[in-house]
Amino acid sequence: MTTAVVVGSGPNGLAAAVTLAADGVDVTVLEASDSIGGGTRSGEVTLPGLLHDHCSGFHPLAVDNAFSRQFDLAAHGLRWRHAPVQYTHPLDDGRGAAVWQSVDQTADALGDDGASYRRMFAALAPRFPAIADEFLQPMVHVPRHPLALARFGAYAALPAALLARRWRTPETRALFAGAAAHTFHPLTTPLSSAIGIAMATSAHRWGWPVAQGGSVAITRAMASLLTSYGGAIETGVTVRDHRDLDRPDILMLDTTPSAAADILGATQPPRISKAYRRFRHGPAAFQVSFAVDDGIPWEHRPSRSAATVHVGGTLDEVVAAERAVWDGTMPARPFVLVGQQSVADPDRAVDGVHPVDTYAHVPAGWSGDATEIITAQIERFAPGFRQRIRATHVQSVRGLEGSNANYVAGDIVGGACTPRQLVFRPRVTLRPYFTGAPGAYLCSASAPPGAGAHGMAGWNAARAALTDLARTRR
Fold first, then answer.
1. Is 57 within a domain?
2. How far apart are CA 308 and CA 180, in angstroms?
3. Does any domain span residue 401?
4. What secondary structure does DSSP assign to 163-214, as a single string?
5. Among candidates 357, 349, 451, which has minimal Cα distance to 395?
6. What SUPFAM superfamilies does its record include (predicted)?
7. Which pLDDT value is given to residue 258?
8. How many domains does the chain have?
9. CA distance 456 to 434
10. What 8-state DSSP symbol labels residue 350?
């Protein structure tokens, strides 16, 4: 029987394991931590009963993709929940902008920018499943939907700071800047619009849902599915050398490229090992979880109905902050992502106290404490927030890296989203999952299509492994 070992149990490692096990492979997942899930873990970190997501909190691209279409995670307990508003971007004096799942409702609320917004997203949203199928795989491939991809690509190729200026009002420009800032990269560079366009369009097609009961529900559903296929999971097992394993037919590495190179050692060709060690990681996140009485009192009223709020001020402020972080300077007012998951999943709140998960973009390896900076940024747009805080839990950059070896210097997205690494990751090759070592594949967020709890890097890598295995056995 074909055997496989998967090193790492993040959503990509579990997706790879499920895909292999469904094909009849005998799969064992090895996880260094005492719990599985990687970026899809949840727990009570502030007050008893308040459930916080440790990293990934909303999951638009996990709703409908090749992996989710093949495997019924709902049958294993996964339920998606949506807030009335998908995401918002507040500005000073109660101003701001919001995205509803309806393109028309969003456009109607944008005033003078409504017509331009509608032209863009009314054309992209109906075609987004086909577009997403194209970019949730290696970028270099023969597209099945070239026309839809070309329209998306015409926007995606532009610098986000430039594309945002197609709109005239500060509110709409800031709204797009907030979505684009998920790239953790300067918004003045080519291709920096790609993630912003993808995230915005996904909000109109599928919304930005949260997992009922926390992101850990994704982990539990995948683990349940894996065991139903006969797969096994072992925790507390650190793999440092492939020779410590029992010569599996397939080795899947849900790790960083440099960690993969360490594990594979001399079995990996030197030129590939060198490329893996040159892989560039991006800026860091600094996380603060809050327990908040009655939720955050945003002056911008739609922000009270959104599970995700982007805090960063105007387009120019977001652009300047992201550039500073990339250059290694901590901005006084960083971009902060605020997760109010209890707006979509009310059972996460307890007796009127709501869990709020935030992270600020900070320089890689930053050693400071951003708790007060994050608090002040939220207070700026929600006066009275500070007085509502009942408890906090801080995860510094160093703490993040210590909690998950894949978060190198606090990089939670699996690698810098430079133009080169958006197209070619982890190295320039037409076989991005193959490590060069026989039977070994990289299946982490450092492989295409990058970060997210959608599992597509794992699904793609597992399918590549099965294809190669079948070819060698002919």
1. yes
2. 14
3. no
4. HGGGS-SHHHHHHHHHHHGGG-S-TTSTTTTHHHHHHHHHHHHT---EETT-
5. 357
6. FAD/NAD(P)-binding domain (SSF51905)
7. 97
8. 1
9. 15
10. B
- The residue written with tokens 């139903």 in the block is 228
Q: How many residues does the chain have?
A: 474
For the segment 431-455, what is each residue's pLDDT rounded down to a tens digit?
Answer: 999 999 999 999 999 999 998 889 9
The answer as to whether 175 is a domain residue is no
Compute the distance between CA of residue 327 and CA of residue 232 in angstroms, rounded to an integer: 43
pTM: 0.95
Q: Token digits for 244?
A: 């410590």
Residue type (1 letter), 218: I
Instruction: Answer whether residue 221 is part of any domain.
Output: yes
**CATH code assigned at 228:** 3.50.50.60
Q: Which of 99, 69, 68 is closest to 84 using CA atoms?
A: 99
Q: Which one-letter amino acid corresponds to residue 447?
A: A
**Structural domain span for residue 448:** 3-79+211-279+415-472
Q: How far is CA 401 from CA 4, 214, 378, in A?
A: 27, 22, 25
The mean predicted confidence, pLDDT, of the chain is 95
Cα–chain center distance at 235: 23
Rounded mean pLDDT of 362-374?
97
Mean pLDDT, range 174-201, rounded to an integer: 96
Quick one: what percent of the chain has pLDDT higher than 90?
91
Please give the Cα distance from 15 to 36 (Å, whole number).
13
Could you tell me the pLDDT band of residue 324, with boundaries at 50, 70 and 90? very high
Reported confidence tier of residue 472, pLDDT bands at 50, 70, 90: confident
DSSP string, 389-424: EEEEEEE-HHHHHHH-TTSGGG--SSS---HHHHHS
- Partner residues linked to 88 by β-bridges: 98, 309
Q: Which residues, 6 or more positions from 463, have their beta carbon under 8 angstroms from its beta carbon?
A: 19
Give the sign of the dihedral formed by CA 119, CA 312, CA 194, CA 357. negative
